[in-house]
Amino acid sequence: MQETISIVQNNLSQLLKLALDAGKAILEVYETAFAVEIKDDRSPLTLADKHSNEILYNGLIKMGGLPVLSEEIKQLPYEERKSWKSFWLVDPLDGTKEFIKRNGEFTVNVALIEGTEPVFGLIYVPVTGKFYYAIKGYGSYFLSGLNNLSSNFNEIIAHSKKLPIEHRPAGEYNIVASRSHMSPKTEAYINEEKKKHSVVNIVSAGSSLKFCLVAEGKADAYPRFGPTMEWDTGAGHIIIAETGKKLVRCDTMEPLTYNKPDLLNPDFLVY
């Protein structure tokens, strides 16, 4: 694992800059009257997804010589992927529906997977310029902007705020739920938590910002009953895990795993 972690240590500033550049490309499209395509799975696709993907792919493929698995690249069959020891897992524009709605709640997600688990995760929010990142064994961090930031790994860590930043008052419980994917199961989960806590608040957010709210301490739980793919969760997973919180599948209560034959995630719970 140390060899994989070394790739992050040696390239953290470049990874942050790469996400920033992808975010800039997204915002250039965001400020225009962009067109929306519909993919085979009925999900939307914009020029912003494509431009961000190109920037990330071209940058990541040079780091450590590792393969890149991205939402916007034709998916390789498991027979080819199963031999991968480590790889980059990318969602170049998470929250395309939020992007189309122009509510600002979309992100750039990059994770580094070793074996079947994430060891590095980076979530960048283009509209706010905020970065959330985590490295296995080093913790999770928040960084606001890259102005005058050193390229030295330890100095970047020192310049960042360790997560969580906020702590919930006793008896108050915040549940983060999707703006676009509220389901009857989610509502049932919320109702069960209302029986356990004196005050239950619902916090709505789009894309992987839901992971960030829990990591920051602004929310206590994020239940997800509905389809997600590995690139939707990889970065958020390690950011959650390095705060001491958990992301587990609902059926077994075991952590999500990655590079599965089927890249679809089961229902999961962050808490």
Q: Given the structure, what is the number of helices?
A: 8
> How do the helices and strands follow one another from N- to C-terminus?
HEEHEHEHEEEEHEEHEHEEHEEE
What separation lies between the terminal Cα atoms? 26 Å
Roughly what fraction of the amino acids lie in strands?
A: 25-35%
Strand order, biggest sheet? 3-4-5-6-7-8-9
Calculate the mean pLDDT score and round it. Answer: 93
Descriptive account of the structure:
- With 271 residues, the chain is α+β, with helices and mostly antiparallel strands.
- The chain has helices at residues 2-30, 47-60, 78-81, 96-101, 153-159, 184-194, 209-216, 230-241; strands spanning 36-38, 44-46, 68-70, 86-94, 107-114, 117-125, 130-135, 139-144, 161-162, 172-178, 199-205, 222-224, 228-229, 247-249, 264-265, 268-270.
- The strands form five sheets. It has a seven-stranded mixed sheet, sandwiched between helices. Strands 12-16-14 form a three-stranded antiparallel sheet.
- A hairpin with a 4-residue loop joins strand 6 and strand 7.
- Helix 1 (2-30) packs antiparallel against helix 2 (47-60) and helix 7 packs parallel to helix 8.
